[in-house]
Amino acid sequence: MAHTVLNRKPLLARIRRIKGQAEGLERALEEARDCSAILQQLAAIRGAVNGLMLEVLEGHVRDHLGADDIPAAQREADLDLVVSVLRSYVR
């Protein structure tokens, strides 16, 4: 079973926290709060998204690249996928 299915509850909890942070950012902008509060909220959201990305990526690498029974062609395809995602993520 896929790691995102097995870890669904904690992943959804992370998403809900990110959603709450984004809503807080929206309120701060609507209320014309100080830019330092907005920057702090943006940094918190970015950190939360980075943590989520790392958790899902680690599960993918362990399940799809680290398993012993994966055929070489599948491992290569998964490796290409990970590299592609990382390239788009760091842009």
Structure keywords:
mainly alpha; 4 helices; 84% helix; elongated
Q: Would you give an account of this structure?
A:
With 91 residues, this protein is mainly α. It is elongated, with a radius of gyration of 17 Å. The protein has four helices and no strands. The protein has helices spanning 3-6, 8-30, 35-65, 72-89. It starts with a helix and ends with a helix.
Mean of residue pLDDT? 91
Low-confidence segments, given as residue ranges, are: none
The quaternary state of the protein chains shown equals single chain
- Proportion of β residues? under 5%
Q: Level of helix content?
A: over 70%
Rg over C-alpha atoms, rounded to the nearest angstrom: 17 Å
Main beta sheet strand tally, sense and closure:
none
N-to-C SSE series? HHHH
Structural class computed from helices and strand pairing: mainly alpha
Q: Could you tell me the number of beta strands?
A: 0
Number of distinct helices = 4
Distance between the termini: 31 Å
Describe the global form: elongated
Q: What is the secondary structure topology, with strand pairs?
A:
Layout: H1 3-6, H2 8-30, H3 35-65, H4 72-89
Short description:
The chain has 91 residues and is an all-alpha fold. The chain has helices spanning 3-6, 8-30, 35-65, 72-89.
